[in-house]
Amino acid sequence: SAETAVEYCDVLASLLGISSHNSLNTVLARRDKAIMKECVADAGLRVAKFARVKQACDVPNVISDLSLQFPIVIKTPQGFSTTDVYICDDENDAMSKVGIIVNGRAAPDCRIPMFALAEEYIGGKEFAVNMISTTDGIECTDAWLYRKDVGEGVARYISADMMDPGEKKLEKVVAYAKQVAAAVGILYGAAHLELKASYCKEKKQYINPCMIEIGARLSGGRKTTLTQAVIEGWQPFQALIDAHCGNKVKFPLSFSPGEQHARHLFLPHRLSGRITEIRGADRFESLSTYHSHFLLAKVGDVVERTTDITSFGGFVWLAGPRQAVEDDARAVWETFSFQTEPIEKESNVGEISGVPNM
Asked: Which of 166, 197, 160, 106 is nearest to 329 (CA)?
């Protein structure tokens, strides 16, 4: 189901008399980011310090009450991914972003927010952990490490790399993810958790995982089909149907990618303006590890410089031997670009560099 419809699905299933639906007691905890954190914290799991903020002038008191240190995060309680999420370096910036969220316009889920969230900024690496919940328990199917470019108050995705969910270094991350899914009442079907964790060299593990948000749905960004391409025998869509029907799910012997790898590349608009040329896209399908791609923009479109998940110009997905994926990703960064010409009232703060530091 879509991000904005997960709560409706469970309520509708209940009204139809379908028994294999997720808990209605925690239905809002699977959508509202504030209730979500409260529910996870009540289960004894780590979450970022946060508070609801109804108006911009409340920001100084919230920062003081929570003993927050800058940067802090201001976000909508009902968004998804990086949409309407701001990293603020000072009080004035934070107040401005609260004003943007509570100004009466619809949030990404088409509802008007009654408040914004002010949160502690959590450091470390960002992960996505995907799971399937069945009558036999919760199984982790795949995990992804994000690379981001953080600056100018926003965090832009660069790439997402498949990890081995069975590796010891992800042991605490995966265990935490399963506990979060259980805490918000995901009993049947998919769970997609985004979290942060810090790497401990002494333990050779990621430690202190902390939830960003969780959804009762499959991962976006074609990570489900990438995992299907890499993991032999895995049929995620059949598994999702079986889980929601209360049937036994057939899992592969292992979800380890072994020598195979997958990567999701995010293609930004480096500058605002009118697109005059798209360079390098014609080479995608010739890459040895090419899986698929999608371009959201075309020549002639007027675009804004990428600031969140909804403003990227396109995506490329790669799957195959690890070194070949690395080589093909580098080729994409070096050859692909959206060429733009300035238009009136352009909002370029600076150019996003062409080849990220991988």
From this structure: 160
